[in-house]
Amino acid sequence: MNHVMKFLFGLPLLLVTLIPVAHADEFKLSNNQRISCSRGLSPGKLNTATCKSYAYLFNVKTSEYFRCQVSLALTRDNKEVINVQADGGCTKKPRIFDTDSNYSFDATETEPPNTNSFFGPGGYSVWASDNTARKLRGCITISSGLGSDILKCLDMTF
Q: Residue 107 is part of which domain span?
């Protein structure tokens, strides 16, 4: 009976050590969220305010990331709020590094309308570093004004 009890208590430990643990991807939010707002006057004394904010969600294992945006539009007259609309979502972007590791990430972008946006709604830059090696990559994406964005990345030298 004592051997049976030892076996029953030891079985879960044996299973835990023999079954490989699946490591989930870990996602981190960038530290550089921004918001931009604009106001407009419409005929009939209507006021409209539109605000947009963005953030980046980064997979610290694979270096792929998502650009996420939320917007809110509010229309009112002198007495009441007439309409409120919200929209948003995330867009998957390509990996910054080809191999899996342990990465850090940050991003920033211009908010339109902006004097830095030459051809369209502006651009953004992302920085990623490998936490296991002295490896840093900077990438800039700008709108070409011709339908596709231009992305260039450069490895930093030390």
A: 21-155
